[in-house]
Design a protein that fits this description.
- The protein is an alpha/beta fold.
- It folds into 2 domains: 204 residues, TIM Barrel, CATH 3.20.20; 201 residues, Hypothetical protein af1432 (Orthogonal Bundle), CATH 1.10.3210.
- It is built from 20 helices and 8 strands.
- Strands 1-2-3-4-5-6-7-8 form an 8-stranded mixed sheet.
- It is globular, with a radius of gyration of 23 Å.
- The two termini are 36 Å apart.
């Protein structure tokens, strides 16, 4: 395999401060609308062991140089900024109409900050009040905030269903857009779909729905048969091309992706066989898995992006752990398939009964064991912003930040070729 051709380009420092190689320790968390399309991102910062003032200056730099805009692909984005940054640098945000600020209720007690926020609101800056209490108690302070914010996020994990419904309706009637946050199970998600919400955010996106009798649709069974054939037949480049020869859409997506500018190939690859020879059969098999999963247009696009990010991160962590190249490519598969149960709407054990995988991957997916289990656990902790112990060491955070930012660029690039195009 040509290593130089398949690595991310040198400009992939997606959110590094100018003049610095230190990446910004962030995670982008999607908020989806009722149709499961992206409404906005939240940018979450890993703050462990980092001076707040230094972190905020790095955030400011990435806003100024456009790196943060590239990270979120120009979508509406909310982030929590320090008081000092809001007071001193708000003009920067006024030139970034897609960036908004997350606010806690306590800011209503800060007269200078409230004055600045009112000025920002008058000039069109996006403001979202983040409510973490079990109820929204009426008060003069709350009213002053509700008069300047366009969005309110309610914590669905602490509010009762009745309170969430009533509060959402009250805010909606006032013309305020409401987001339900901390929606971490599908029962809560289903309740939220009945409310006048602008978006829903939470871990529900990454966990499978509970079903009494799992049933795979014909499309999903066909996809698993293709995956099983790729696993069991151990094809060479010619056989690999023959397996997907009759699937024109899959072949087109595959060649479109590998020939993209992201990989900077020295020449255009004109067939799956050529691509398999250039990249290696195992790598191409992973690409076929990726493009096959992209055909599931009934699943949220952000879910496939999450799977691609996990795949790339898992591969890079395996590389950093000194694993051989074949194990790194198996780590990619483990990361990609870590959301297979959610993508297939069936328990992981049930899905794997239709897809015999090598023990190292199967053990990681079902029990978090084997060489790839600990790698996936690191990724889950990073996604959730819940680093602890050795994971929270500054050097480790810096390494994970670099891997994550490269993975997002990789995922976005691949998805741009995998995503079904409108007719």
């Amino acid at each position: 395999m040509n290593e130089a051709a398949v690595s991310a380009p040198s400009q992939a420092k997606a959110a590094s401060a100018p003049g610095s190689e230190m990446p910004l320790p962030v995670v982008r968390l999607p908020m989806l609308d009722a149709k499961r399309q992206l409404f906005a991102y939240e940018i979450l910062f890993h703050r462990e062991g980092i001076d707040e003032a230094v972190l905020m200056q790095r955030v400011l730099s990435t806003i100024l140089d456009g790196a943060l805009t590239r990270l979120v692909r120009g979508n509406r984005t909310f982030l929590r900024l320090s008081r000092e940054l809001l007071l001193e640098q708000t003009d920067v945000l006024l030139h970034q109409p897609r960036f908004g600020v997350l606010l806690r209720q306590e800011v209503a007690q800060d007269a200078p900050l409230m004055e600045r926020l009112q000025q920002m609101a008058q000039r069109g800056c996006l403001l979202m009040l983040d409510v973490t209490d079990t109820t929204l108690q009426p008060s003069a302070a709350l009213e002053s905030l509700l008069q300047i914010v366009q969005f309110v996020r309610l914590d669905a994990s602490v509010m009762s269903p009745e309170t969430l419904r009533e509060t959402t309706q009250t805010l909606h009637d006032r013309g305020i857009w409401v987001v339900a946050g901390q929606v971490d199970d599908h029962a809560t998600y289903q309740r939220c779909l009945e409310l006048p919400l602008q978006a829903i955010q939470g871990r529900y996106l990454l966990i499978p729905e509970t079903v009494e009798v799992p049933v795979l649709t014909a499309n999903r069974l066909s996809m698993l048969r293709l995956m099983r054939e790729l696993q069991e037949s151990n094809p060479g480049p010619i056989e690999l091309g023959d397996i997907i020869r009759d699937d024109a859409i899959l072949s087109y997506k595959l060649l479109s992706c590998v020939n993209s500018a992201y990989f900077s190939l020295p020449r255009q690859l004109k067939s799956v066989q050529q691509a398999a020879i250039f990249f290696g059969v195992t790598r191409m098999r992973n690409w076929i898995y990726t493009m096959s999963l992209s055909g599931m247009d009934d699943r949220p696009p952000e879910l496939l992006r999450a799977a691609l990010i996990r795949a790339h991160m898992c591969e890079k962590l395996a590389s950093g752990a000194g694993m051989p190249r074949d194990k790194q490519e198996m780590a990619f598969t483990a990361g990609l398939f870590s959301l297979l149960d959610t993508l297939m709407c069936a328990p992981m054990e049930f899905v794997l009964s239709h897809l015999p995988l090598v023990p190292e991957i199967a053990e990681a997916l079902v029990g978090g064991r084997g060489p790839f289990g600990p790698l996936l656990e690191q990724i889950y902790a990073w996604e959730a912003g819940e680093l602890s112990g050795q994971q929270a060491q500054p050097q480790r955070i810096q390494r994970m930040a670099s891997i994550y930012l490269e993975a997002t660029q990789f995922a976005d690039q691949v998805f741009s070729h995998a995503e079904p195009k409108p007719n």
